[in-house]
Amino acid sequence: MLRTKVLSLVARSGPSRLMSTATKLTTVEVNDKTGIATLTMCRAPVNGLNLELLKDLKTSIDEIESNKSRGLILTSSNATIFSAGLDIMEMYNPEKERIRAFWTQLQEVWLSLYGSSVPTAAAINGHSPAGGCLLATSCEYRVMLPKFTIGLNETQLGIVAPKWFMSSFLSVLPQRQAERALNQGRMFSTEEALQIGLIDETATSKEEAVEKCAAFLGTFARVNPLARALTKQQFRAADLQQLENERKDDLEKFLFFINQPAVQKGLGIYLEGLKKKAKK
Ligand SMILES: CC/C=C\C/C=C\C/C=C\CCC/C=C/C(=O)SCCNC(=O)CCNC(=O)[C@H](O)C(C)(C)COP(=O)(O)OP(=O)(O)OC[C@H]1O[C@@H](n2cnc3c(N)ncnc32)[C@H](O)[C@@H]1OP(=O)(O)O
């Protein structure tokens, strides 16, 4: 069977198996019964999206896509953090070539995840600021654990969420609420996120969150996969095409913006604050 050929197994436990692209920073486990792949981010300490994690995410998403899994659940191995967003160290005093590769890879991840033909869901088992929220809102369904926060807080750091971050957010929230939240750099508690519709459900444990995501993905079991995928892609085509058309400009805009002395100063102060808080 093609599926069996493509998936080279590195481990087997119960009805699940790990796919060959499993690396240190992401793992992919496919449930043999449901055909659903769970993609787990596991970069200590906070799943900061650096170049290497982004590369692993892209490879894993592509493999799930090409193996025609029945669904993709994105989650984290960290007990309290889904993803702390972009690794600020990639943007602070950046190295010229690396920051280009970093942003290009982030674009790649977004295009693959938001544009995935496979149905997607996020089991948000911890805090999910900025880039973490981008990943979650690129999925079609979100289940979140209580007492965490989610949102696009970029303005709080003195930076600006690019258009395509907004596209994902706007695929979930009405424009009025999205615009206000982005302008404020607002982080929502789980309860607030549920109320506003930024997440779809809550769960009391990661296992329950994954189960609820799987139940959502299961709603497509009797829908023709091609018809479903083409329908999803039509909804998202304009957003995806916009970034495809503007990728170079988007990169140059990012580099120009991030290299402004005032932006670098702001990032330095923010990092300092994070480190001070961590030491307490
Ligand atoms: C005109 C313009 C037009 C268009 C736009 C053009 C360009 C756009 C330009 C820029 C766009 C950039 C978009 C950016 C997106 C992002 O994702 S920025 C990142 C935002 N993330 C955050 O603000 C989260 C910050 N972190 C936290 O709030 C907390 O750490 C946490 C809630 C996630 C977890 O809290 P704790 O469990 O208490 O953990 P600690 O705070 O103690 O952290 C442990 C350790 O990790 C370090 N750290 C945390 N987050 C990050 C991070 N994002 N990057 C790097 N490092 C991080 C923290 O400093 C601690 O480090 P140590 O002190 O232990 O070394």
Architecture overview:
Helices cover 50% and strands 14% of the residues. It has 10 helices and 11 strands. The strands form 2 sheets. The protein has an 8-stranded mixed sheet with strand order 1-2-3-4-5-6-8-11, sandwiched between helices. The chain has a 3-stranded mixed sheet with strand order 7-9-10. Strand 1 and strand 2 form a beta hairpin. The N and C termini lie far apart (55 Å). The model is unreliable at 1-14 (pLDDT under 50). Bound molecules: ligand LKXGUNVN. Ligand LKXGUNVN binds next to helix 9 and helix 10. One of its GO terms (molecular function) is delta(3)-delta(2)-enoyl-CoA isomerase activity. Its main location: mitochondrion. It holds the Pfam family ECH_1. InterPro entries: ClpP/crotonase-like_dom_sf, Enoyl-CoA_hydra/iso.
| Secondary-structure element series | HEEEEHEHEEHEEHHEHEHHH
Output the CATH homologous superfamily. Answer: 2-enoyl-CoA Hydratase, Chain A, domain 1
Helix content: 40-55%
Strand content: 5-15%
- Ligand catalogue: ligand LKXGUNVN
User: Looking at CATH, which topology would you report?
Assistant: 2-enoyl-CoA Hydratase, Chain A, domain 1
Walk across the major sheet and give the strand order: 1-2-3-4-5-6-8-11
Number of domains: 1
> Which stretches are low in confidence, meaning pLDDT under 50 for 5 or more residues running?
1-14
CATH class: Alpha Beta
pLDDT averaged residue by residue:
93
| Structural class by secondary-structure content | alpha/beta
